[in-house]
Amino acid sequence: MRAETRAANIVTRFVFLLSALPGIVLVVSFQVLMVWLYKWGVRPLPMNVWQTWQVHVVPVLLIAFMSGGLFYRLARTSMLETLRHDDVRTARAKGLQERTVLLRHALPGTLIPLLSALGPALGLIVTGVLITEYLLHIPGLSMTLLTAINLYDYPVVQAIVVISCFFIVICTLLSDIVATFVDPHARRNMLPPYWELRLL
Q: In the CATH hierarchy, which fold is given to the domain comprising 6-195?
């Protein structure tokens, strides 16, 4: 895995450009995409959204473009940093195949920052995709929250905020627990707060 190849530079610059785009540019771009897909037979979400896979193309692409740049940069930086560790150099010095070095030694250390960022990001994606829900007329939590704010329905606003915070905390906790099973180094540092509960 090389850091300065032409393909890596092209992909990195494209991701940086995509991450720097204002939200209104993505909105207009996906509105044009929706018109193009509508001409090809893709319609807005039906009552039963699981009837056809085509209706999920635009929401998935929009959410992926909004959060994919961060995870790409984080994964690339983490992998390049992990490849400089002593255990990876030792594995290469022993004559192990590059695939074995990447999968057994580099990948576990690379996944830790991704898992740490995935928990909060997953909670925010599920509870905060207001642009996607507004454009595609999806009756989700964000649209319900916006409607409740416009109607001054404070109990509904409070309930949605509590549910969103709870979901983000649960996703963060689960990502930390999964990280303990991926990397032994993280297991020693992260297991005591969650598992070694001592009764006084």
A: MetI-like fold (1.10.3720)
Query: Is the full-model pTM beyond 0.90?
Result: no
Q: Tell me, what's the pLDDT at 24? A: 63
- Spatial neighbors of 62 by CB under 8 A, at least 6 apart, are 26, 30, 131, 132, 135
Start-end of H helices in 4-56: 6-20, 23-39
Using CB atoms within 10 Å of the CB of residue 32, give its burial: 0 to 12 exposed, 13 to 18 middle, 19+ buried: exposed
Contact predicate 91/105, CB 8 Å: yes
CA distance 121 to 72: 13
Burial 106-120 (b: 16+ CB within 10 A, else e): bebbbbbbbbbbbbe
Structure tokens, 196: 């070694």
Which pLDDT value is given to residue 155? 92
What does the block give as tokens for 162? 């509590």
Report how far residue 161's alpha carbon sits from residue 2's, in angstroms, rounded to the nearest whole number: 44
How is the chain split into domains, by residue range? 6-195
User: How far is 112 from 72, CA to CA, in rounded Å?
Assistant: 14
Give the list of residues 6+ apart from residue 106 with CB closer than 8 angstroms, or none: 79, 82, 83, 88
Query: CA–CA separation, 116 vs 173, rounded Å?
Result: 9
